[in-house]
Amino acid sequence: MAFIPCLLFLAILSAWQATWAASAALRADLTHVDSGRGFTNGELLRGMAARSTARAASLRYSSSARPGASSEAVTVPMARGSTGREDYGSEYLIHFGIGTPRPQPVALELDTGSDLIWMQCACIVCFDQSFPVVDTSASATVRGLSCTDPLCGSGGLPLSGCAADDNVCFYVYAYADQSITIGKIMEDTFTFAPNSTGVTALPSLRFGCGAYNTGDFISNESGVAGFGRGPLSLPSQLQITRFSYCFTTIVDGRTSPVFLGTPDSLEAQATGPIQSTPFAPSPAGSSYYLSLKGITVGKTRLPFNASVFALKDDGSGGTFIDSGTAITNFPQAVFQSLQEAFVSQMPLPVANNSYGRLCFAISSSTADPRKVPVPKLILHLDGADWDIPRENYMLHVQDVDGTGAGDGLCVVIDSSGDDDFTIIGNFQQQNTHIVYDLNANKMIFLPARCNKL
After folding, report:
1. Is 382 a catalytic residue?
2. 111 belongs to the catalytic site
3. Cα(318)–Cα(58) distance, rounded to whole angstroms?
4. pLDDT given for residue 85 in this prediction
5. Could you say which of 111, 216, 401, 407 is catalytic?
6. Residue 346, φ and ψ in degrees, nearest 5
7. CB-CB contact of 244 with 434 (8 Å)
8. Where are the beta strands (DSSP E) in 247-317?
9. Are 25 and 54 in contact (CB under 8 A)?
10. 3-class DSSP state of 245
11. Residue 104 to residues 31, 132, 195, 210, 238: CA-CA distances in angstroms?
12. How far is CA 160 from CA 151, 168, 174, 211, in A?
């Protein structure tokens, strides 16, 4: 009769899986790629700019790779923001364990621009990582996904099929910067153990066991966690109606929370009003598009209407929010107008030779750069005005011109060049609780003390 308790346990487990998404919010911790590396503000800024340029270039590549209509191009997972240097790679890493009875640690890039969850294991060709790759043979609960499973053929994988040796689904997943992972789709238990709460184990989640992984990866990561709209993303597999994150101040190097599900109270640690804006219709793909209507800098509404920021019929353009891009990118004409608006309203002179970025020189008599008045930056979204905090677009940089002449305040906004897309990056999202309400198809956002959540 020993099988009766086992059946009872399985029934309870099944019921728990069915109700978990609706009743709880699971918290996990994120670390920024530059956390604890001792970088100055100037070094942080140059690193973020390089990663953002690479990420934007990947979108440019995928948009130009198509003949005619772009519906296929935007389904290409965005590049991970790498530049070929070890210190330029991912943005935020989510930490959890995989397998039983002893979960093995992984650190995956949180990416709202792609779907697949994958990690290095069963390595044939792998990039260096600072901790052991996952050993699936050490898990009592791992199993391969049958190639007859619908997710193998219709789960949004660019290339998948049947492994001849064991009938397990194999995949090929390439990013627009030519980084690639090849392996088999497995399923196992994911275990989350954030610092402030108890351990939560979630069984039977699908992931890529990457045996061949090449590209510009960094040693403190072991793969990618897709948070996009496709069926293999982590939110989709958990069947949650909401997920959210709250990025702490990057220069402080603290961990940031990500919530899978609905937090108990959005008002917790809020420092301003709760607003929302609907997600805009988007082409086939994973990114979360928004309707940006215009931009105000200080007293100046920039002379661009909603059509400049809208998704075009051919799939180009559009505005989306992205966890994997560091710095917000605007089309070149918008970027130029924004810079001119700052120059005309800032009470400081423009600094010379500031690494190609618009910076304003701070005199030695300025006691506290944080008290220098700067123009507001407001993004006018559909149904909401996002008043970006000054520390999310104006960074105090020591030795701004590299000569030791003095400090400066630098505008942390970039251009997407001749392309017409807009990306809202994570630097502009600091200390803002960003909620992806998948059920209501909208983004909720509010200023918050992210380090207190």
Report:
1. no
2. yes
3. 15
4. 41
5. 111
6. -75, 140
7. yes
8. 256-260, 275-278, 288-290, 292-297, 300-301
9. no
10. strand
11. 18, 9, 17, 15, 20
12. 10, 10, 12, 14
Phi, psi of 152 (to 5 degrees): -70, -40
Among residues 22, 199, 175, which one has the least CA distance to residue 102? Answer: 199
Tokens of 104: 């093995």
The one catalytic residue in 29, 115, 188, 322 is: 322
Q: Which residue has the higher pLDDT, 154 or 339?
A: 339
Digit-coded pLDDT (tens) for 259-308: 999 877 888 899 999 999 999 988 766 789 999 999 999 999 999 999 99
- Bridge pairing between strands 394-397 and 408-411: antiparallel
Quick: pLDDT tens for 290-299. 999 999 999 9
**Distance, CA of 81 to CA of 383 (rounded, Å):** 31
Pairing of strands 421-424, 318-321: parallel
For tokens 């008043």, the residue is 387
Query: pLDDT value at position 139?
Result: 97
The whole-model pTM stands at: 0.88
Residue whose pair of structure tokens reads 């296929």 in the numeric block: 72
Quote the tokens at residue 351.
């600094």
| Closest C-alpha among 81, 98, 89, 75 to residue 229 | 75
Coil, strand or helix: which one is 218? coil
